[in-house]
């Protein structure tokens, strides 16, 4: 029995060269094409944060999403999959921060209610 193989059409311009390391580190601007780099993502998030008057970073957004998941009571297994942390000890830092945040919110509510 013959197996069917998927093939890609050949590129008439020849084989593609691997991009050099310097090319990988350049930020992509909207409409420039190519892959979005870490530097490009940071620039986009930072610019959007400035537009609304907050300091924003990709890591900060990830950290906030993880902390919110903890505060909403999401199962630890889901949080671990989301963060892609292999060690539960790493996620413990998020739990510690979440407890701190909950305490701060409680104190603010108590102060408001007088």
In short:
The chain has 114 residues and is mostly helical. It is built from five helices and no strands.
Walk me through what this model shows.
- The protein has a domain at 36-113.
- It is flat and about 55 Å long.
- The chain has helices at residues 21-24, 38-51, 58-71, 76-83, 88-113.
- Helix 3 (58-71) runs antiparallel to helix 4 (76-83) and helix 3 (58-71) packs across helix 5.
- It is 58% helix and 0% strand.
- 1% of the residues are buried.
- With 114 residues, it is mainly α.
Kindly list the characteristics that best describe this protein.
114 residues, flat, single chain, 5 helices
Number of helices: 5
From the alpha carbons, calculate the radius of gyration and give it in angstroms: 22 Å
Structural class computed from helices and strand pairing: mainly alpha
Helix content: 55-70%
**E-strand count:** 0
Record the SSE blueprint:
Blueprint: H1 21-24, H2 38-51, H3 58-71, H4 76-83, H5 88-113
């Amino acid at each position: 029995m013959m197996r069917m193989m998927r093939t890609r059409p050949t590129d008439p311009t020849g084989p593609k060269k691997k991009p050099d390391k310097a090319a990988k580190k350049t930020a992509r601007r909207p409409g420039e094409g190519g892959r979005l780099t870490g530097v490009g993502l940071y620039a986009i998030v930072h610019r959007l944060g400035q537009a609304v008057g907050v300091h924003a970073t990709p890591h900060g957004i990830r950290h906030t999403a993880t902390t919110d998941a903890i505060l909403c009571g999401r199962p630890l297994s889901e949080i671990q999959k989301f963060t892609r942390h292999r060690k539960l000890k790493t996620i413990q830092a998020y739990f510690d921060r979440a407890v701190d945040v909950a305490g701060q919110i409680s104190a603010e509510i108590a102060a408001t209610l007088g």
